[in-house]
Design a protein that fits this description.
The protein is α/β, with parallel strands linked by helices and 241 residues long. The chain is built from 7 helices and 7 strands, in the order E-H-E-E-H-E-H-E-H-E-H-H-H-E. Strands 3-2-1-4-5-6-7 form a 7-stranded parallel beta sheet, with helices on both faces.
């Protein structure tokens, strides 16, 4: 994918996370000038990163304006930012709701709104969804609700921004194979997920980044309003838990 994004200016939110930092690196390798945004900057050394809170309109607009100034404009936005918390229904508190929905849903709303003066024809917005948007699981009601909203926003933004030549799509990963994810779920559940994945391999951060590069490129010029599942085919099978 060398030079597939040459000359383009990209903003990646949640840029210090495992997926976000990989997308930053891979888009740079594809020729894009990339500016990252995150509420923490300690894990993205040597790259351009802006520290900002995207959960508020003020914070989102300020971060996007700063990113556009650094990059000289914006052609691509990849929304990875989210504050994560899993827990049962009885454990959810108002602060959990506000922070998770604010980061995952508000972050997309405010960055898209703030980027309108910069994005032109050929622009691309890519949102990170999840298979949790359409598959139920225990202790994931807030996370699933947020990702369901991401999918809905993707379709509505595609309809609204399409006449201006701006495409909006989403990527829905399943289990992403990272050291942190393996520690979280444990070896037994990783083995079970691997067993129930038709391709026999779990998607890693590079698989998500490669999909984002494709969606941002001219190869996806006729694709908008779609959510692409990246999970090795696992979602296509029944009773895959």
């Amino acid at each position: 994918m060398d030079n597939l994004l040459a000359g383009r200016r990209a903003v990646v939110t949640g840029a210090s996370g495992g997926i976000g930092s990989t997308i930053v690196r891979r888009m740079e390798e594809a020729g894009a000038a990339v500016v990252g945004i995150d509420y923490r900057a300690d894990e993205v050394t040597g790259r351009q990163i802006i520290v900002g809170d995207l959960a508020t309109r003020e914070g989102g607009h300020a971060a996007i304006a700063q990113a556009a100034e650094r990059a000289g404009g914006i052609d691509i936005i990849v929304n990875c930012a989210i504050w994560m918390r899993y827990g049962g229904l009885a454990e959810i508190e108002q602060t959990h709701f506000d922070r998770l929905l604010g980061s995952a849903v508000g972050g997309i709303l405010w960055t898209a709104q703030a980027a309108l003066p910069y994005l032109g024809r050929g622009g691309s917005i890519i949102n990170l969804s999840s298979v949790a948007a359409f598959r139920g699981a225990r202790s994931s009601v807030l996370y699933g609700a947020a990702k369901g909203a991401v999918d809905a926003m993707t379709r509505h933004l595609a309809a609204e921004l399409g006449p201006d030549g701006i495409r909006v799509n989403a990527i829905a990963p399943g289990f992403v194979d990272t050291e942190a994810a393996r520690r979280k779920v444990g070896d037994a559940r990783v083995a079970e997920r691997l067993r129930s994945t038709p391709l026999g391999a779990l998607a890693g951060p590079d698989s998500i980044a490669n999909t984002a590069i494709f969606l941002a490129s001219d190869y996806a010029a006729a694709i908008s309003g779609e959510t692409i599942i990246v999970d090795g085919g696992r979602n296509a099978t029944a009773f895959n838990d």
